[in-house]
Amino acid sequence: MSSAPVGPIVEADIAVVGAGAAGLYAALCAARAHATVVLVSATPLAQTASYWAQGGLAAALAADDSFDLHLRDTELAGRALVRHSAAEILVHEAPDCVHDLQALGVRFDADRFGRLALGLEGGHSVRRVVHAGGSATGRRVVRQLSALAAKEPRIAVLEGARARALWRSDGEDRCLGLICDDGRAIRARAVVLGTGGAAALWARTTNPPGSQGIGLLLAHAAGAALADLELLQFHPTAVIGLPGREGFLVTEAIRGEGATLHDSASGERFVDELAPRDEVSRAIQARLSETGARSVGLDMRAVDPAHFPNVVAALRDAGLDPTCEPIPVAPAAHYTMGGILTDLDARSTLPGLYAVGESSCTGLHGANRLASNSLSECFVFARRAVADALSEPAPPSEPITTEDLKALSTLAAPPAADASTRAALWENAGIVRSPDALHTLLSDPHPLARLIARCALARTESRGAHQRLDHPDRDPSLDHRHVVISGDEISWQTWE
């Protein structure tokens, strides 16, 4: 095991790992509560995965919408696996988070009367998705929050820093902080992980290369429980066959404005484009398997290109004009619904450790995430995490011994997945899965690939994003039952 010298100990009230939407908002919420924050970001600010998010924030803001309707749509999409209490919190608190982001300077799209322009996406029964710059929501939000964090005196930003391991006390069974790759140790009363998901573990993905579940591995190594790792959502419309744009996501909002999906040979429409993502992805995959084609056509010609300027510009840069021709698309790994098991205040099973955003598993998304609930989740639960962490009494500040420093220096960093692991996950844990294929992943060198396979083998049914060839139907006895892995043990839990 390699070791690195431990540098000076940095003290803070809150340590936040990850500078995407959830991490930035958590840091700003803590600073507004007069707490000191260390924000650890592997990339420069405004270059995280959230920056590329094209979807918006789902919130019941329209006159024809309601909390009950948003809750119903969330639970319907989640295939009897949504944690009801988490969904209730999301739908009730999302509108206030939208207003808070506006107060922080985020400018959302509005109509000519100054009212929020709400979009329609798959699985939503009414228009309730708030966007910024059309499909540039992630860019606008992260850019503004990054600027605020950079100039906030209570936030110390460590750019280019990577968390190597979580610092866990021996006596108290508590997270005391973390150590970075460069040897810097951060001690804090709470650590908030906002490190994103794991969809880049699959060879074909909409995610940037760094989205490999680093936070999940950090938490697992420290003893925190993970949940629902078998539930990986595939986005139906990722561009295929274009060098430099492979996996580029064409936002679901474009289908909400009238884009349609067609067989690439016959031109036939074959699916309800606004069905939940699991249905649309399976329909496309089935059509590709039947025809042997690599892609289907997404026809955007009826959509005003001015509503989605960054998508249209990116496609034109790649040599495609969506105003004149269908775009070749196919499903790609997109969003990790499983993650670090948390309660309704984002607390993990390890005291002092919180997880927010895609690195967490609140149970909100069930077996199939409702479009644009994820960005709302980032803000709702980041705010709850900070409020809870700062309401807890600070743990005793004990002196750090030479033995402590020596132990920190030998903690192993989470490994990156190589091309063979990513190919294996795409081949063996893709849209449709078999037990034989999943068993091959149990010997994969990457620890998270093995954990994913174990959870996928445990769920002997087909539900939402998890489809088993040998168990093609949903098992009602597994409704609201979640696969939890803690250490080497797998268990089933039902969450209130």
Percentage of residues assigned to helices: 25-40%
Q: Which architecture of the largest domain would the CATH scheme give at its second level?
A: 3-Layer(bba) Sandwich
Tell me, what is the CATH class of the largest domain? Alpha Beta
Mean pLDDT: 92
List the helices and strands and how they pair.
Blueprint: E1 9-17, H1 21-32, E2 37-41, E3 57-58, H2 67-77, H3 84-103, E4 118-119, E5 129-130, H4 137-151, E6 155-159, E7 163-168, E8 175-180, E9 185-193, H5 214-222, E10 226-227, E11 232-239, H6 252-256, E12 260-262, H7 277-291, E13 296-299, H8 309-317, E14 327-336, E15 339-341, E16 353-355, E17 360-361, H9 373-391, H10 402-409, H11 419-428, H12 435-440, H13 447-458, E18 482-486, E19 489-493
Parallel strand pairs: 1-2, 1-9, 2-6, 9-16, 15-17
Antiparallel strand pairs: 3-5, 4-5, 7-8, 8-9, 10-15, 10-18, 11-14, 12-13, 13-14, 18-19
Helix pairs in contact: 1-4, 1-9, 2-3, 3-9
Explain what you see.
- The protein has helices spanning about 20-30, 65-75, 85-105, 135-150, 215-220, 250-255, 275-290, 310-315, 375-390, 400-410, 420-430, 435-440, 445-460, and strands at about 10-15, 35-40, 55-60, 120, 130, 155-160, 165-170, 175-180, 185-195, 225, 230-240, 260, 295-300, 325-335, 340, 355, 360, 480-485, 490-495.
- With about 500 residues, it is an alpha/beta fold.
- It has three domains: about 10-230 and about 335-395, FAD/NAD(P)-binding domain, CATH 3.50.50.60; about 230-335, Flavocytochrome C3, Chain A, domain 1 (Alpha-Beta Complex); about 420-495, Methane Monooxygenase Hydroxylase, Chain G, domain 1, CATH 1.20.58.100.
- Strands 1, 2, 6, 7, 8, 9 and 16 form a seven-stranded mixed sheet that branches. The chain has a five-stranded mixed sheet with strand order 17-15-10-18-19, with helices on one face.
- A hairpin with a 4-residue loop joins strand 8 (about 175-180) and strand 9.
- Helix 1 (about 20-30) packs parallel to helix 4 (about 135-150), helix 1 runs parallel beside helix 9 and helix 2 (about 65-75) packs across helix 3.
- The two termini are about 40 Å apart.
- The model has no long low-confidence stretch (mean pLDDT about 90).
